[in-house]
Write a structure and sequence with these properties.
Elements: E1 2-6, E2 9-12, E3 17-24, E4 33-38, E5 45-50, E6 57-59, E7 67-72, E8 77-82, E9 91-97, E10 114-115, E11 119-124
Parallel strand pairs: 2-11
Antiparallel strand pairs: 1-3, 3-8, 4-5, 4-9, 5-6, 7-8, 9-10, 9-11
């Protein structure tokens, strides 16, 4: 499975942005997926995850209530709607997929089997 993340850009604090992750080359629609990010000088961290059917989601504490993860399996695409962006949300955002097909959403990087190339999100104050 190949993943292609897009939608990043430069925005101001308080703005919104929607990231997309298009999957190809496999049955990604049957697998769990997630978003991670790497802020400058920090390790990569979990942002949000979603089960194959979209009925189970989980968010990192710092984005809870501001970000929404969703997916359209018919389009093999996952999204991350980011609202009320803050300068500390500045990071490279990566989409990732796991071969796990249950409803449990993992926050561990090691549980994700394939990764997109990342898209830069910069939030100015």
């Amino acid at each position: 499975v190949q993943l292609q993340a897009s939608g990043g850009g430069l925005v101001q604090a308080g703005d919104s942005l929607r990231l997309s992750c298009a999957a190809s080359g496999g049955a990604a629609s049957r697998n769990g997926m997630g978003w991670f990010r790497q802020r400058p000088g920090k390790e990569r961290e979990f942002v949000a995850g979603i089960s194959p059917g979209g009925d189970s989601t989980y968010y990192g504490h710092s984005v809870q209530g501001r970000f929404t993860i969703s997916r359209e399996n018919a389009k093999n695409t996952m999204y991350l709607q980011m609202n009320n962006l803050k300068p500390e949300d500045t990071a490279v955002y990566y989409c990732a997929g796991t071969n796990y097909r249950g409803r449990y959403v993992s926050t561990a990087e090691s549980q994700y089997d394939y990764w997109g190339q990342g898209t830069q999100v910069t939030v100015s104050s």
